Amino acid sequence: MPSKTTSNSNIIPKNTLKEKATTSVLLIEDDKVFSQLLVDHLSKQNYLIDSADSWKKAKVFLSNNEPDLILLDVQLPDANGLDLLVDIVPQVPVIILTAFGSVQNAVTAMRRGAADYLMKPINIQELELVIKRVLENEAIRQELQLRKTIDDRTQNKFVGKSSALIHLKKHINAVAQSDINVLIQGESGAGKELVAHAIHRASPRSKHNFVAVDCCTLTEDLFESELFGHEKGAFTGATTQKKGLIEGAKDGTLFLDEIGEISPSIQAKLLRVIETGIFRRVGGTKDLRSNARFVVATNRNLAEMSEKNEFRADLFYRLSAFILESPPLRHRPDDIPLLVEHFLKNHSFSRRINVDVDQDALNDLIQYHWPGNVRELKNVIERALILMGDSHILSSEHLVFNYPSVKTNLNTVLSFKHQPTLEEIEENYLKKMLIKYSEHRGKTAEALGISERTLYRLVKKYGL
Prior knowledge:
By secondary structure, the chain is of the alpha/beta class. Helix content is 43%, strand content 14%. The strands form 6 sheets. It has a 5-stranded parallel β-sheet, sandwiched between helices. The protein has a 5-stranded parallel β-sheet with strand order 9-12-15-8-16. Strands 4-5 form a two-stranded antiparallel sheet. Helix 6 packs across helix 7 (192-202). The radius of gyration is 29 Å and the shape is globular. The relative contact order is 0.07.
């Protein structure tokens, strides 16, 4: 929430309990005596309370702040409160206050989205009860909206019928019923977070929070604070106590993406949480307990990293109690036509409804190597929709690949339109094997029964 400003003389400053308060309220009321009465009383009830005596001043306040609740007078000097509801709701719940009540006004207010409607003179105890009820309902609404957002992101997003995808779904459903830690391995863009969401949704913890953390985006100090929380005064700028994401995931699932990027010191603290369920906030001395389930993901080889002492072996063993592989898109080419159809029907930036894909374009999509996996396919389709203009036929000319030189069909045997030379056969087969093993030269050389040095010479020879 943006910081609140009280520089305007017509905005009443917050009380001295602001650091302990958790709910912010804006009172829009032109009766200054009544306004001050409500501010004083609600401040004692531990609310962060600001007030404005006109809609003009309230708009200035709202442009920089996001209150949790608005108390709105109907008769303002520059506006009618009932007319303002359309602009305010549903961003913020509103309780209407008025001295000029009628059944018609009450019905109008509720139809326009007001959370409740109270007549002046206000019974202060009744107001307290109404505020609590409205805030509780808003909390429920937000949680339902959050769940819907998660559902929208994950429902029907496992698009495809390939054996690799069926195998993955089977293992997701099996492991979801336990509390065991899960390590999801896979290339960038292969849908590791989608797998984590699916595990959570299918588990008994689905009614609790799913908290995702990207281990790459924060510095070590900030990451520690975000993960474990911090106490007031723990470091410069820590003006209040902050609960960490581990606490936020209580009884739910904590998803740590790109776990291979965390520092050794964070690894040690994370190991303690996983082993004992106990942790401390930064700057804290009190032991706290976590009941979160840990699901982690990486595009790196943690086993190799642990052998090289680049990742704690004991943490790797804890995290890898159950390992899932999110298959790369090139290993499930049968799913590409279904994914293309899905992205064409579920894009958000174009009004185009019906789009056909010609066979040449579909062949190009199937033959492409997809180093960026499903994420890259989505980007290619969205670029194609932009390049199509007014056309309703997606053709090869609309496809822009990130790596256009890497195109080959994994489903076919080597075939040529002419009598191939031995070198042509060797080059094409080598290209296929490199794609099969994701450009991993050690695995490719082993599969071909040659040394890595020989493989390097062949790759250089054919410019692969």
